[in-house]
Design a protein that fits this description.
Strand order of the largest sheet: 1-2-3
Helix content: 40-55%
GO molecular function: ligase activity
Number of domains: 2
Function: Catalyzes the attachment of tryptophan to tRNA(Trp).
CATH class of the largest domain: Alpha Beta
Order of helices and strands: EHEHHEHHHHEHEHHHHH
Bound molecules: iron/sulfur cluster
Strand content: 5-15%
Binding site for L-tryptophan: 136
CATH superfamily of the largest domain: HUPs
Motif ('HIGH' region): 10-18
CATH architecture of the largest domain: 3-Layer(aba) Sandwich
Structural class: mainly alpha
EC number: 6.1.1.2
Low-confidence stretches: none
Largest sheet: 3 strands, parallel
Length: 332
């Protein structure tokens, strides 16, 4: 059976782009592969970039990311879900991988270049990030990695590291393959400035746990078809982000009604947005309710994460023993 690994950044509240692009996919893979779906909130990665790392918020954001994933339907009793820093084998394997990875290859990573350009002093950890990511995946001998397309280079490097290790120490790791969820790429930001989450702040995002009245305030002022100036002007839903959201949250009948109503000026944009809000309310309300129940029972969340770390370590330990032996460390 394939073993799936995915790392989840503890970036605070996830938005609907994360939800449709990644989180729903985690739930689906979890139903298919059970405990062989391994999901990890990557707090060790979060501290590598001083521009976005806030120590006072890290624990809270890590907790909230677990709550959000459980609230959308990820069942911690069916999958393996834990926090990266709770499984120290990630760091141990990462160190071994740094000794196999040329600095030049790490410096070529596009994400490293983008992030390091914005820093006055670049921490070595930011450079080593892809070696830690390779360790995250290979520590479980995972062969399937659901990621965004911006991670292609890192997955390629992971495959390269696996090959290098196997060549140096004998066949140990599979070469994992990335699986992409294309839907993530098509979700526009609510401010109309490209992909959701790409522009700074929360102006472009709709949080999956955001209160519905706050969502409405964003939808109300969201740009629509710019050619539709007056209520009587026919519009083109194909160029409107509100219509893109309808495709995510509304039923087929509503989508068809909106499409026809927009093109014939049969409906106005505010009515169209209200219909969208109704679809969002239906979809997001049960998630909000589950999140509230989880926040009211923090012990459940902490216990689930502790159990997840235990399960992850049970898989990781024998693999690390095999690695230690092959590398030649003294066994006591
Ligand atoms: S009617 Fe709806 S789909 Fe058409 S332009 Fe207005 S908001 Fe967009």
């Amino acid at each position: 059976m394939p073993r799936v690994f995915s790392g989840i950044q503890p970036t605070g509240e996830p938005h609907i782009g994360n939800y449709f692009g990644a989180m729903r996919n985690y739930v689906r893979l979890g139903e298919e592969f059970g405990k062989n779906s391994i999901y990890c909130v990557v707090d060790l990665h979060a501290i590598t970039n001083p521009a976005s790392f806030e120590p006072a918020l890290l624990a809270q954001r890590t907790f909230e990311m677990a709550v959000a994933n459980f609230a959308v339907g990820l069942d911690p009793s069916r999958v393996t879900f834990f926090v990266q820093s709770h499984v120290p084998e990630h760091q141990e394997l990462s160190w071994i991988f740094t000794t196999l990875t040329p600095v030049g290859e790490l410096e070529r990573m596009t994400q490293y270049k983008d992030k390091s350009e914005q820093l006055e002093s670049v921490p070595a950890g930011l450079l080593m990030y892809p070696a830690l990511m390779a360790a995250d995946i290979l520590l479980y001998k995972a062969d399937t990695v659901p990621v965004g397309e911006d991670q292609t280079q890192h997955i390629e490097l992971t495959r390269e590291i696996a090959r290098k290790f196997n060549h140096a120490f004998g066949e140990t790791f599979p070469e994992p393959r990335a699986v992409y969820n294309k839907q993530a790429l098509r979700i526009p930001g609510v401010d109309g400035n490209g992909k959701m989450g790409k522009s700074k702040g929360e102006s472009s995002t709709i949080g999956i746990l955001e209160p519905l009245d706050a969502i409405w305030q964003k939808l109300r002022v969201a740009p629509t078809d710019p050619a539709r100036v007056r209520r009587t002007d026919p519009g083109n839903p194909d160029v409107c982000l509100i219509f893109d959201y309808h495709k995510l949250f509304s039923g087929l009948d509503t989508i068809q009604t909106v499409d026809a109503g927009c093109r014939t000026a049969g409906i106005g944009c505010i009515d169209c947005k209200k219909t969208l809000l109704a679809g969002m309310t239906e979809h997001l309300s049960p998630i909000h309710e589950r999140a509230e129940a989880l926040k009211a029972d923090p012990d459940f969340v902490r216990d689930a994460l502790a159990q997840g770390a235990k399960e992850a370590r049970a898989v990781a330990r024998p693999i690390m023993e095999e690695v230690r032996e092959k590398v030649g460390f003294l066994k006591l």
